Please model this.
Amino acid sequence: MAENEMGLTVKKDEDFSEWYTQILNKADLSDIRFGIQGFIVQKPWAYMIIRKIYDYLEKEVEMQGHLPYRFPTVVKEKDLMKEEEHAGFTPEVFWVSEAGDKKIEERFALRPTGEAQIYPMYSLWFRSYRDLPFLAYQSRNSVFRNEMTTRPFIRGREFMFFESHNVYNEHQEALDQIKKDLETCDEVIKKKAKIPFYYFKRPQWDKFLGADDTFTPDTVMPDGKRNQLGSTHDLGTNFAKAYDIKIRAKDGKQQLAFQTCFGPGIWRIFAAMVGIHGDDNGLVLPFDFAPVQVVIVPIIFSKKKELTEKVLTMCKKLETDIRKMGYKVKLDDRDYESPGAKYNHWELKGVPMRLEVGPKEVDEKVVSLKLRTGGDKEKVNVSDLKKVIGSKALELDKEIEVRAQKYFKGNVREAKTLKELVKIMKEHRGFVKVPFCSVEMDGEKCEEEMKAETQGGRVCGTLYPKEDKVAKGQKCMVCGKEAKHMVYIAKSY
Ligand SMILES: [Zn+2]
Model:
């Protein structure tokens, strides 16, 4: 067995950071030895799961009427500077200023996000209210930011991206789309990937650069840090103004268009699946996401050739049959590994279901089935296999979902005073619900003070669309003024 295939040597609860590093390496998810900091190789086992996240997102947005576009990877400097707040991205961008041995006259950037490259084209495309609403998305590409600290699938200098960029006649249409973006997050992140999260409306001082409002699905990782799984933004007419996206309205008057953009964090969703579902033996994957859903392990201890043949013949037939049923199946017939080593290997990789076949199983026309989430080994008649794989897949998914929800609930606490908050942030981190004066700009002072006291706690925002009620007479835990909101505090990556 290769050295990097040996099991995890650290417990997730004891040292999550080291556990995460080990699982990326030992389950062969990424390689950080590419040689430029913050740029990694995404290995097949990770990339196949990531592609599945893309499949689901694309299906959801296309059902809403979004069409796929492919814009270049680069953006003009002039366009990047057009929206004053959005130009705040420029300290993070990589510039292309030379080609061969010549200086490029007008340097351009590797795109840090999509707005500045897409909206100049939008200003050419729309003339009348009849051209709207316009729903577009880009998928399976990447963006570049010069991050100082990087971590595979959490923060990179190049990372996987998905974005939708929409244009409307009315502001209400923008608000409706934000609700749909929330539904997309619910469907893909919560229902499919089994990652529980809160949907926050961000405080005014912590919005996307240039947006009127920012909404984010946030979960918590096992080290108690907030993991932002995406964002959707009400851009109002800010970008339309900067990029000159005007249309002739029904009444004949020229008006600025309203816009939203939505970006689920592909890598962050993957990191949450790894971190939240995984255990001390390795990855645990929801059935649909697993690159291999069923692994068949022949149990051969005898040296008798005839017996070996009998077992392998049945295993091969099972593999063909299960593939025909529509499942992703693999027969692990490596003759240089013991069954035990194979169990460990596929558990590390998070394969949901294992079928064991030995001489006894061949005689009885059964297989021994074991789920990655635990429970007893079960004997299943080969003739029932199709039905049983289907029902066991549901059982596994339910177990993953229940565990994740329990974990998430266990990471949400409440504090009434700053002292209580400081204590919780020291002992547990996670989300802490607190009374707070304001999520408008005047609340930022209180965040500053709270951030210093808690060594890095930030206001995530208020729950959306249904904000928590503030009890009568509640005071802001920092300044003591009347609390207008219940907000959630967390440290983040
Ligand atoms: Zn306050």
